[in-house]
Target: ROK family protein
Amino acid sequence: MQNFQNLRFSDAHQRDCARVVSSLLKADGQSRASLAAALELTSMTTSRIIADLLDNGFVTEDVAEKRGRGRPGTLVRLNAQRIGFTVIKMTSYLVEGALLDLQGNIIVSQTKRLSASADNQQMTGFLRQMILELQASQPAMMVHVGTTILVAGIVDVKKRVWLITSRWPQVRDFNLAEALNPVTPFVCLFRQLDIELDVHFKAETAPVNTAALLHWGWGIGLAYCSHNVASIAHQGPFGEIGHWRFDTLQDRPCGCGNRGCLETAVALPVLLSQLGLDDLINQGQEQDIGGYLQDVSLAEHQDMQLAIRLVARAMGNMCRILFPERVYLTGPFTSNKAVFTQLCSQFQAEGLVGALKLPDVVMVQTENQDILQSAIRPLIESALGNLPAIAAGEL
Model:
């Protein structure tokens, strides 16, 4: 599960403790003998590791079901509630927060609305308060290791800086690591699109080498991965095709400061207003709006026709740059069958280059639990590298 070459340990015992915990994360309830064999440890070393993990509350041991003669064996099980993480999803005005244990089980969750006028200072107070409220529901022995923030917009993942977002236009160059340092030991920042792409790419039954995910909703965003690593996105800002500029839209100002951006014609708030469906903006998350749009007549509306043509052209241009083998499409408009069918048809009519063909478009929805479990993976790695500090209450 974890790449232990990326983790630093003061000695072999700490590393092996982390390896045992990681093994139990893959398959909980293992015997000492099976752990020793799987990790190539001696029985004496395994016993010393288990004793340490038991003393510090990271694992428990219980009697296995008796089979045949002799004394029943024991099984080592993970105490998942010894370590906790928070994940906050900031992809709409309704911000979702959850406290999870080491196995990704949700301990508690909450949803709060954050005004579109919020600036960096107000965002800082809002996030700190949400994290503290989630931490207040921790089980007695749980140690909070860190927080993952999932956002939409332009981000610098390495520096953990949220550069710009259309949801909260007053939030600019927001350093989440600095803002949240007082309430959480470790902070990860990702675009939710990258997390969703990771989920679908790993779930492929027919593996591909490259894939792209395009989200058509509040904004228009792109995620891309190659060989199971979203490497481009992790180098810094990436994928804001919503701000590609089109001459046909040059009279439309965009919140980013330019004119003619794709989002000025195809973004969710713009189209809902043009379609006379303004009230849906306050209905909740994008998936809730998508459920309503599923049965609404949209595809023949003049503004929707323009939006479909522009999104199809943007997707075609994206494929001429990245040449993905698979394209996933998400967002509330994809739930409308007529819109999705027309979009796919116009996308294929774009053509690629020469005899090369455009990839098929796969409409996907990402389960919330899958997003959360993928979001805490780097936090789990941090926890495994800091088991002694967690045990000592020093994290």
Summary: The chain is about 35% helix and 20% strand. Residues 302-322 form the longest helix (21 residues). The chain has a mean pLDDT of 90. The first strand starts at residue 59 and ends at 63.
